[in-house]
Amino acid sequence: MSLSPRAINTFLLLKLPAAFFCGVRAKALTKTECITSVRLRWINQNPFKSMFWAVQGMAAELSTGALVMQCIRNSEAPISMLVATNKATFSKKAKGRITFTCSEGEKIQKAIDAAITTGDGQTCWMHSEGKDAEGNIVSQFAFEWTVKVKSK
Question: What is the CATH number of the domain that holds 91?
Fold first, then answer.
């Protein structure tokens, strides 16, 4: 059973309230792609009147993590997930609504399949790109996800 954006947003409220109250929301989720967004507001701004980098990171991580969660759920295997490393670049002030897209669902699915088949932990770098309303890239994030079948 696939996750829905509504289920993910409820998860945010209950388990990641900082992201929820900063305005991070899942907008679309398919097998291969997740889109999240966040709008600049008083609560998530920095002193320079643009979006705080960590809020962008929460939205970017959600766009990759939702794909990981969905693949784990669909596998029906007891798999743990964790971010091991992340990298980010910022190219423009984030103002207005910023939309993050990750289109690497197939990549994480292969890592999860390998973890199930081999029993060994796997890593997978997933990328998310943040764009403003005009389509300009404001930030790019990369997260190294680790997935491992839980020991009994």
Answer: 3.10.129.10
Q: For residue 108, what are the domain limits?
A: 5-149
Alpha-carbon distance of 34 to 28, in angstroms, equals: 6
Q: Quick one: which H or E segment has residue 54?
A: helix 53-75
Arithmetic mean of pLDDT, 13-28: 97
| Closest C-alpha to 82, from 25, 143, 8, 145 | 145
The alpha-helical segments, DSSP class H, found in the chain are 5-15, 17-21, 53-75, 105-118
> pTM for this structure?
0.94
Domain tally, the chain: 1
**What's 45's DSSP letter?**
B
- Could you tell me the pLDDT band of residue 84, with boundaries at 50, 70 and 90? very high
